[in-house]
Amino acid sequence: MSETTRHHRACHLCEAICGLIIETRDEQIVSIKGDPQDSFSRGHICPKAVALQDIQNDPDRLRHPMRRVGSEWLAIDWDEAFALVAERFADIRERHGNNAVAVYQGNPSVHNYGLMTHSNYFLGQLKTRNRFSATSVDQLPHHLTSLMMYGHGLLIPIPDIDHTDFMLILGGNPLASNGSIMTVPDVEKRLKALQARGGKLVVVDPRRSETAAIADQHLFVRPGEDAALLFGMLNTLFDEELTRASHLPVADLDELRAAVKPFTAEAMGPRCGVLAAQIRQLARDFAAADKAVCYGRMGVSTQAFGTLCQWLVQSINLVTGNLDRVGGALCTEPAVDLVASTSGGHFNRWQSRVSGLPEYGGELPVSALAEEMLTEGEGQIRALVTVAGNPVLSTPNGRKMEQALDGLEFMLSVDFYINETTRYADLILPPTAPLEHDHYDTTFNLFAVRNVTRFNEPVLSKPEGALHDWEIFIGLAKAFASRTGADLKPTMAPQQMIDHGLRAGPYGERNELDLSLSRLRDYPHGLDLGPLKPNLAGRLKTEGQRVQAAPPLFLGDLQRFAASIAAPSDQLVLIGRRHVRSNNSWMHNYHRLVKGKPRHQLLMNPVDLSRLGLLDGQRVRVRSRVGMIEVEVAVSDEMMPGVVSLPHGWGHGRPGAQLEIANRQPGASANDLTDERQLDALSGNAALNGVPVEVEAA
Which residues of the chain have a pLDDT value below 50? Predict the structure, then answer.
C-alpha cells in the first residue's frame, strides 16, 4: 500500500489564508485539516478549505482547452488555441481600434499569484482602455480613499483587531467573509478575545448578521445611508471636543471640521434611521475608548456614497488619534511590499465612452461594460477576455450582460468552468487546479492583521499537458506578439519574482532575517513577522508626505450628499448577503459547500411580510427597474423593517452552463435586480445595496 504524504499549505480561496495540513496518497487527497502550528490561523479551518478536495475532483472542471462550435464544445490543443486568439484579436483591433477588445478580471484573480504576476504580460499588449474588474463591484472606494488621503491605493489601514478595545464595524460581516480587506483567520475567536479583555464590539447593519449576533451592540441602519450616521458621528466628535491630536503630519484638518459642521446627528438621524441620541452616544463611546477602530466594508462601499463612507471611516480613526496607532488602524508591512514597489495609482485620466464614468488605476467601472458592448459607434467593444470571472452573476443587471456577451465577435475566457458567463466564449483556456500549483499571497499579506508570510508548494503534481495560469498568459503573449510584430520583453517565473520581492522587501537583504524564497521554504507553517505597528508617517506618498484630511475630490461630493433624498419609508430596498460557505458566484458546484439548510431565500421582516399579505416560505416575485425574479421568501426578524436581503452569486441553471451541482440549486441572481445605473457617482463603484424593489406573491 502506498504511503500517505503530509503537506503544509495555506488555503487561498478567501482572504483568511488559513494554514492547512493536507494528506495525499497516490495523488489523491485523503484529508484536509487545520494546521495548529500555523501561528496566524491557529488551526482554524472553514468548510471552503475542506472543499478543495471537491474542486480537485470536480468532473465539470475543464482540463483541456475547449473551442465552441455552435452549441458544441470541442477540444483544441494549446498552440492552436493561442494562434486563434492572436489572429482574432489582431484582426478586430486592426479593423476597429485597440479599444474594441475589452478585458474583465474577476475576484479569483487576486487569489492566484500567477494571474497577478503574468496576466498583464498578454493583456497589456492589447493596449485597450476598456479594462474592467470586480474591483468596481467591491472595494474601489477603499482604494480611492487611500490614494487621495495617503498617496497610494494599496496603503489601506487595517483594524488592529488583537489589541483594540472598541471595534465599530459598518457593512461588514467577518464571521461570514473571514475578513474582507482585513486578512483575519479565526476571526470569531479574535472578536470574543476583544470582549473577554473588556472591549466592546458594535455592528451597524440593516441585518442582524452573524457578526452582529455576537456583538455587544447592533444598530439597524437604512441601506445606502451609512454616510449620514458617519457624518453625525464625526460632527459630534468635533462639536463635543472629543478629538485627540495625531502624531501624523496632517493637512487640512480645519477644512474637514468645517465641511462636516452642517451634518449634525440631529439632522442625520432621520436619514439613516438611527436616533440622534444613539449617534452621539456611539461617538462618545468610541472617543472614550483607549484604543478604538472604525471599519467599513462591502455594505458601505457598494452604495451611492460608498467613497464618502470610506473617507469618513478614515477620518473618525484620524481625529480620535486611532490612525496609525496600536489598537487602532495600522498599515501592514508585508514581506513583498507592493506599496513600496509600485506607483500610487491614478484616477479619472479617461472616462468610459457611453456614460463618461471615471477610470481608476487603468480600469473603468464594470457597470459600464454591457453598455460599451451594446452601444454602436466608434470605440464599441466587439471582443472580450474574461479572466477568472463570471460577470453575468456578479455585476449589475446580469440579463443585460448576457445580451451584450451574445453579440460579441469573439470572446476568450481563462477559466476552468463552462459557467453562466463563459458559455458565451468562443474559447476557454483552463489553468491547473488550486492544489496543482504553488502560491504566494501577494495581496492578502498586504491586508493581514499581523505581519505574516509563507510560500505554498504544490500539493499535487501538474497533470500532463496542463498549463499553469501564468504559462497560459506567456503562450498568449508570444502568439500575439508574433502575429502583430511587437517586441516582447523577457519574463521570469512567478517564483523568481517573489524571490526578488522578498530580497528587496523590509525583511530581505537589509534585515537580519535576510528573507528569500529559499529561506521562506524553511517555514512550512508560515512565518510570523510580528504584530502591526505604526509606520504610516514614513510610507505616505502624498505631496508633502502629509495625511490629506479633506481631499477636494471628496469635499466636492458633499453637495450631492446634501441634496440626495432618502427612499420613501414605504419603499422596500434590497441588500445582499453572503455565507461562510459561499465565495461569490464560484463556489456552488461543490457538494460540501451547498449541503445543509437552504440559504437562497429572500429574507423579510415579519412586519413587511404581514403588510404585503405574504406567508413564510411562499414563492414571490421581486421586481426592480431592470428585471424580475422569482424566489422563496423567508420570515426573519434579523431584517430591518423595509429591507429585504438576497444572497449574491446564486441563480445558476442557465442554458449552456455545465455545472451539475450548482445547476440543481434553487435561488435566483440578486444581480438580475441590481441596477447598472445606480452608482457611487464619485468613484463609479456599483451601488448594489439600497436597490428599490417591489415584492408580491408569485
Answer: none
pLDDT at position 181, please? 92
pLDDT at 180: 87
Instruction: Quickly count: other Cβ atoms within 10 Å of residue 617's Cβ.
Output: 11
Q: How many residues does the chain have?
A: 698
Output the pLDDT for position 392.
Answer: 97
Which amino acid would we find at residue 670? A
Provide the pLDDT for residue 585. 66
Nearest to 466, CA basis, from 434, 490, 444, 443: 434
Res 390: pLDDT: 95
Helix axis angle for 140-150 and 306-319, nearest 10°, is 50
In our burial notation (b when 16+ CB lie closer than 10 A, e otherwise), range 307-337 reads bbbbbbbbbbbbbbbbbbbebbbbbbbbbbb
H or E element at residue 299: helix 298-301
Question: What pLDDT shows up at residue 109?
Answer: 82
Quick one: pLDDT at residue 565?
82
Amino acid making up residue 313: V
DSSP string, 640-668: PTTEEE--SS-----TT---HHHHT----
So what's the pLDDT on residue 568? Answer: 80
pLDDT for position 331? 98
- Distance, in Å, from the CA atom of 114 to the CA atom of 99, rounded to the nearest integer, reads 25
571: left (phi over 0), alpha (psi -120 to 50) or beta: beta
Residue carrying the nine cell digits 476552468: 416
CA dist 209 and 202 (Å) reads 12
Domains of the chain, first to last: 5-50 (3.30.200.210), 66-137+341-484 (3.40.50.740), 160-325+535-560 (3.40.228.10), 564-697 (2.40.40.20)
Q: Which of 20, 50, 62 is nearest to 418 (CA)?
A: 62
Largest CA distance in the chain: 76
CA distance 673 to 626: 6
Nearest to 458 by CA among 120, 14, 24: 24
Q: Is this structure's pTM higher than 0.90? A: yes
Whole-number Å distance between alpha carbons of 220 and 638: 10
Q: Which of left, alpha, beta for 610 (phi over 0: left; psi -120 to 50: alpha)? A: alpha
> According to the model, what pLDDT value does residue 684 have?
98
